[in-house]
Input
Amino acid sequence: MRCPRSAFVSLLFWLALPGAALGQGVRPGTESYEAVFDELRKLAPRGDGVATVRNLVLRRDVAEFRLTEGTLQLLTDVGGRTVGAAFVGGGTLSLTPPLEVERAHLRRVMGDSTLDGPIAAVVFIFADSTLPELQRALTFGAGTSPEGTPGHVSHALDFLVDGRERRADPTLMSALLNGDANGFFAAYVKRQSGEDVLFSVDPLEVEEISLLRRGRQLGQRVETVCQFQRAEDRRGGAAAAGERPEPLRVEAYRIESKIDGNYKFSAVATVRVAGRHPDTRWARFLLFSELDVDSVVADGGAPLTFFRRDGNAELWVRFDPAVKKGETRAVGVVYHGDLIGYGSAFEDFLPPWWDPARRRMPPMFDRWAYIKATETWYPRHGFWEPFDMDLTFHTPRQFRFASIGRLVESRDSGNVRTTRWVTEMPAQQASFNIGDFEEFEIKDPRIPPVTVHINKDAHNYIASYLPHARNPQQHVGADLANSLSFFTTVFGAPLFKRYYATEIPYFHGQAFPGLIHLSWVTYVGTGETGADESFRAHEMAHQWWGIGVEPAGYRDAWLSEGFAMFAGLWYMQVILRDNEKYFKQLREWRSEIRRQREEAAPIALGTRMFERRPKDYDLIVYRKGAWVLHMLRNMMLDTRTMDEAAFTRLMQDFYQSHRGGHASTEDFQKVVERHLNRSMDWFFRQWVYGTAVPTYVFSWQTEPQADGKHQLRFRIRQEGVPDDFAMFVPLLIEFAEGHTIVRVNVRGPLTEAQVTVPEEPKRLELNPLESVLAQVRTESWP
Output
């Protein structure tokens, strides 16, 4: 829903008055974030809340805590209520994840697909029914703490609280600040053997149940071992993608920003939110840590209490009065800071050939700006839901500027250019770019107009070092136009009526609705491998996959990145008319996927791969995700005519079915099944939810028959995968003149078959066209 302009105008008018920046952060007492945080951080055993325990059982979803014998002690209050208890003694923890993909990951990370063993201590921290359960089962009174109890409490808090940055688990903190019994539950478990873990129920997560361990990456506090929906959601068939647990829904933003000639940034963001919970007094937003908050105000201009620690992205805002369920409210945030960098910040990232004697930035780079935070340059609440945006920017007139949205107004006043951009449909991501660019337009009857920004001076300088660098206007423009046209043909009509492609001084690209950030490296374009063409097309493909159809959740990230990776490769194959480059890239990816298959997680773990092995995210979500589409493409190929219209219809159907919305892996599987007219559970279980990669050992022989025909016998041994692993594998049979391709259902350790052919084959090739992500070896007929 678009917000009424009048409400925004009245708020912005108030913010412009003298004294509008008088908000002084939190007020003391019960309204203070810091007071509640300090009480949480100092949780300790209470001397008046001690109970003897025998055979007490607590169950939370799939976890059972059996406290056989010991002492349980309540912890000090936070915000005037008891939110913790510590048990020391003997007992057991039993936990089996309900999903095979999670059981497999638990086995991969911790050596077993279940947790079922003795424990020495448990610390419970809760905002649910735990306290009444304990009070009904136990008798509390004065007593002493068992040895080690304070240490166990401290270890539990290490999972949930970061004292240095003064932040805590956001759902727990929301419960404490709002006085809610919101259902949060966490149990730190000291196991008698094996590492300590934390089991949690977080109702503000789409997948509420988690098992955590201490993080293994540098600077990482915790790592998610398992995560899944609650039992009631699984029984009821509720799709995780359809859940929206955040207490507030952001309906719209109206942001007015100023960027001066030195790239100093300031903004007023008016956020219109709607309440989902009965009463939300405190709400958490995220804002880039190098942006300072000057003030936060309510609809009528009254200052609101807020908490923000320097260097921390969290911004906690206290609504007064609380936002009720179904109520709509606007909040204004005034902020400024170092959002945009430029110049010498890139010296450490320059390649060796760039002024190697001094390693300094050439003068023309001093004004090459870069956006430091493309996701949190405005206050965010939730990351999966779209919103309307009305963006006004005041920028130096000499700079080129591009934003998401449709340009509805542009005017100059002196040296300042004011532009206003309005989203044509709700978006869940937004960015812009600014710099000393040259601009050119691509006008092609096949596609919407495309505006391209190039740092021409920088590329003239680059050309003096790299005389073979291509004209960026020519090759970048051609790929943008051709890929936009190609994807329109094979996927469907794009969402927007105009596109902007703008250069950034990074080594990556990024896509936003109608806006593409392209690395400066691809503008140089000296490579001959096809990678540049594939990269540019990849970023354009995100206008379909990732923006046109957004992943429904973190597990579905491959529907954006894997699809775009495949689309870029497909485009490169078509535009360069070079099959060898296409297959060479697939083979290189296959080699790395095979090398890492014992350690890497499956595609379905999505963005959680960053927590354990960050490099696997690119390998599995991007590259293996692209391989999955390549396998479907070849599975649907008409091997007699080499026509791939069936695969194109599949992709068009999926895009049209979810255009402008969200889609999950399950949604994609349903479309695949509709086009293949069969269940594809086996395929997705193996390639999206599994990690196995087969090796095929192939042998064959032929015998002449009395009628002149030949009896062809072959066998395929399948290695490195479970016994029920199956795949339709093409077999190319070449004759003296001509060839045929048959598909063999390879299932289990050994597949044997025979077929009558019209003449003696000259050559056989198992898995032509790299049709299956597999290694093939040949051996002599036994």
In short: The CA atoms of residues 250 and 273 lie 4 Å apart. The chain has a mean pLDDT of 90.
